[in-house]
Write a structure and sequence with these properties.
about 100 residues; alpha+beta
Amino acid sequence: MADRRYVSASELFRTLSAPVRLAIIDHLTKGPAAVHALVTATGESQPLVSQHLRLLRAMRLIQVETQGRERIYSLTDEHVAHIVSDAIRHTQEDNQEEAPA
């Protein structure tokens, strides 16, 4: 496809396609967090969370700041936070509509 906008948007959606990465982004919408907080929030192992954090950083969706011995992660901007929050809210609405009365 010649239009780079669609290619870039597709790459963003591909990056967000992993449930762990969605959980990380969702947690970071509440504010910056250290790795141990993201491990607790996702329920995944520290090595797995770190692997997903590396990918999110490579895609420039999150940034990291070192504070003492901790690495604190935060969102680079609010655009992705809105996409993830809207997607979660949308799927919850769909599930509520399907629930029997």
